[in-house]
Amino acid sequence: MKTRFLIILIVLLVIPTVSEAQCAMCRAVVESESGGKTAEAINNGIVYLMAVPYVLVAGLFYFIYRKMRG
Questions:
Q1: Where is the chain membrane-spanning (predicted)?
Q2: Residue 8 domain-assigned (yes or no)
Q3: For 31-51, how does the pLDDT look when each residue is reduced to its tens digit (9 = 90+)?
Q4: Would the pLDDT of 19 be above 70?
Q5: How many domains does the chain divide into?
């Protein structure tokens, strides 16, 4: 059981670094630039877009918890 858990954990930690895929247009823009600033900006934008729904859901659950508690 511990071995299976360890294998799953390693796979989950390795997959995000392997799967850094982009759409065709973004990839073309990033590959055409030599500085790497555009690639960093695109990756930061993706992280922000991905984080906003989680923050909103967390806030919703916090307010529901507060309402149910008191």
A1: 45-65
A2: no
A3: 787 777 888 888 888 888 889
A4: no
A5: 1
